[in-house]
Amino acid sequence: MELRTEQDVSPYRVFPRAEWATLREDTPMTLERSEVARLRSMHDRLDMSEVAEIYLPLSRLLSLYVDATQKLFRAQQGFLGTEDAKVPYIIGVGGSVAVGKSTTARVLQALLARWPNVPKVDLITTDGFLYPNAVLDREGLMEKKGFPESYDLPALLRFLSDIKAGLHPVRAPVYSHLIYDVIPNQWIEIERPDILIVEGLNVLQAGRLPKDGKAVPFVSDFFDFSIYLDADKEVLLSWYVSRFLTLRGTAFADPKSYFHRYARLSDEEAIETATSIWNRINLVNLHENILPTRPRADLILKKGESHQVEEVALRRL
What we know:
The protein is of the alpha/beta class. The protein has a single domain (about 5-80, about 85-315), classed as 3-Layer(aba) Sandwich (Rossmann fold). It is about 40% helix and about 20% strand. It has nine helices and nine strands. It has helices at about 5-10, 15-20, 35-40, 50-80, 100-110, 135-140, 155-165, 235-250, 265-290; strands at about 10-15, 90-95, 120-125, 170-175, 180-190, 195-200, 225-230, 300-305, 310-315. The strands form two sheets. Strands 1-9-8-7-2-6-3 form a seven-stranded mixed β-sheet. Strands 4-5 form a two-stranded antiparallel ribbon. A hairpin with a 4-residue loop joins strand 4 and strand 5 (about 180-190). Helix 4 crosses helix 5 and helix 8 packs across helix 9 (about 265-290). The chain is globular, with a radius of gyration of 20 Å.
């Protein structure tokens, strides 16, 4: 009997970094070094080689996917005899706290917006759909901020449904990491982009299936392509602590910061505090809600301790 390897039966094809980098082919570098530095989050180590070897091949792949989706849309129009306007192509970006989702989302936005046909590419984070702190306090959920139950899921689903229905403009609430809360009466207006990137912790969350067979929409139902950023939990902890130490002397130093009380901690106290928050909240959320969604992604970017992507797994078609 022929033995089959895990790769043979996996729904993913796995590429080492060097092999994935060759798939860039002649895709041009459209970002300057200074732009890459601006797109990078403070604790990430994104550089030109990471853009060239990881994100340019991904940009090329996405261009093929978007083009194929547009052709399918036109074929469906012909079949139905309709003249509906093309709705945005939605890309979901998920993964743990501190894994680098924001950097990935911003780099993709910058690269995709510079395709030859110059598409309009918008980006939102699901942070804006967190319940306000007053609601989380009332419901005893402040310690579970970032868990699925801390989000206004009906509002997020309505937003995505309106986007996919071609409505415009569609408004998304704004979140402030300084005050650690949703900003009242402030909105981002999404005006019919060609591509919309949706970044967040739980964007691939499926939830419980109904026993009666009724349709239950998930956020990922509205995605055309999804990306999961992955790293070992020990590495994630080290990145989280490093980011906490950096923020202690920057954002936390602002008297308006929700975390201003941490600004005067010693190095030892800050490391202990950050580790405690990670183990009590973020690690639990990772194990219970985020990591189980990894197999639902179309593409998995596995990062090593250096923040570089070491391996890419692409779902087979």
